[in-house]
Amino acid sequence: MNRNDNQWEELLRATEHPEDYSNAELEELLQKGDHLQVYNLMTDAENACRQDEISDDLVAAEWQRIADADSTRRRRSLLRIAAVAIGMVMIAGIVYAAIVLPPKASIPSTTAKATALSPRKSVPRQETALDTVAQARPDVVEYQDVRLITIMRDIATYYHKDLIMAMPDQADIRIYLEWDRAESLESIVRKLNHFDKFSIEVVGNQIKVE
Amino acid sequence: MTRKDDIALLFQANYRSMYRLACCMLHDSEEARDVVSDIFSRLLEGRFVLPAEKREQFLHVCVRNRCLDSIDHLSVKQRMMRHIAIAQVAEARDSGDDERRLEAIRRYVAQELTATERQVFDLRFHRGMKYREMAELLGISEVAVYKNLSRVLAKLKEHIR
Hints:
The complex is a heterodimer of chains A (210) and B (161). Chain A has 210 residues and is of the alpha+beta class.
């Protein structure tokens, strides 16, 4: 019997019945000799036989689904913007009317109302303006509570770098980040390095997260 | 041509290969479909911009990254149950290499394996039969199945370096 026959028998059994093994046992098994290489070769062999062909109709239907979802999203977006714009015009009109209309001694409540309105309404107006500016910046990607590895992969792909995550635990750290793709890689790395839980450096063609 | 038309053309040209890549990585056709669709949805939303050159390659890298993201949290056991590859070095391979390697396997199996070896390969990797089922079908012991399959894998390993 060939040396490999005995060597790989356990691996072959394990690939068919991984449920019979603990995670640690499987990890240990894959670390033996060339087991990991052979296991991956088996997945390659399976992939080489895969027939994941899909029909033209399915491709067309899938595109329609994505395009429809996008149109709906855009319509909602436009309605939101329209609502905000109408709101701003109304607020501006009220404030304008309050300022331009001559205060009448007989109705002091109008002036009081305007004074009360102005500072209170100026805050949401400013927020609305900032929000609109953010939407008008197509290069800005906002990540809210997103895994570090997802963000780093996007960044690495965008700047054509390889990503090295030295510590797998860091992959699951969730952060908030506003990434302006018009910025240089160095600039976004500098920004990310303000976080305490990891440090990032660019070495040649690689982005290393440690 | 509008931006949406441009993306539609990219979709037509690349959807199949992107879907195949995702299927190979995830071994789950529904999840593969979601991954690829999500990439095009994000593209339409303008959440990322395609580079001026090598756009197809970029899209496939996106698929790879999304799939890696999706299987990152799976344990070795879960990956083995789904027959998902376990990377020796994270992010080491690109999709072009993958397709070349798979094509090399197909060619080698078709041209170099003996009829018996090809049958064993086909039963296991194409038809996904269990070792016991293969033993019954071929009228040999399960140990003999291991032995035959090991020989096939040794040949492939030697050829696909």
